[in-house]
Each structure stands twice: as C-alpha cells, then as structure tokens.
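Action item from last meeting closed. Structure (90 res):
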C-alpha cells in the first residue's frame, strides 16, 4: 500500500513496463483506445495519480473510471474495447 507522503515516480503499466506521468495520455485526449484506458487504470492503482486527479486530468466521471476499472480487472485490456462493452457488461 502507498504511504500518504510517499512520492511515486513510476508504476507497472498494463504490459508490465514501468510508466511515469510522462507516459500517460495527454490530458486533452479525445480518442480513448484500450491501451490508454488501461494505462490510466494502472496509474491510479499504482498511486501515480489519485482517482480525483485522473478524473480531473481526463475530464471523466468517477463512474466512467469505475467502469473501466471493473472491466479491466475482470477481462484485462480486451474488456476496455468499446466494441465489446455489451459482451463484457453482462
């Protein structure tokens, strides 16, 4: 677990490689591919960003992030495909 005053420089990304804030999608991103969603979920899980910071940075709701998180945890990156959402949300 991340200590409150501990600064996190990098966390394991969805593919196992370390990611930093510089590796995350740009805040103005408008096209969300599975890799980008998975990177944001990994950043929050690892403590690189808080949930609030991620939602503000990417203009997404906590509900949307929660959906990404649940699908990623259950199905991996494949669950984050927009074309597969109905299949994985059952």
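Sequence:
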């Amino acid at each position: 677990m991340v200590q409150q005053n501990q600064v996190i420089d990098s966390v394991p990304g969805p593919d196992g490689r370390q990611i930093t804030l510089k590796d995350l999608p740009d805040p103005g991103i408008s096209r969300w591919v599975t890799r980008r969603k998975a990177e944001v979920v990994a950043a929050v899980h690892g403590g690189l960003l808080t949930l609030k910071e991620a939602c503000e940075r990417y203009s997404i709701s906590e509900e949307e992030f929660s959906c990404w998180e649940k699908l990623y945890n259950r199905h991996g990156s494949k669950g984050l495909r927009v074309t597969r959402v109905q299949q994985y949300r059952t």
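Note appended to the action item: Strands lie at 11-12, 18-19.
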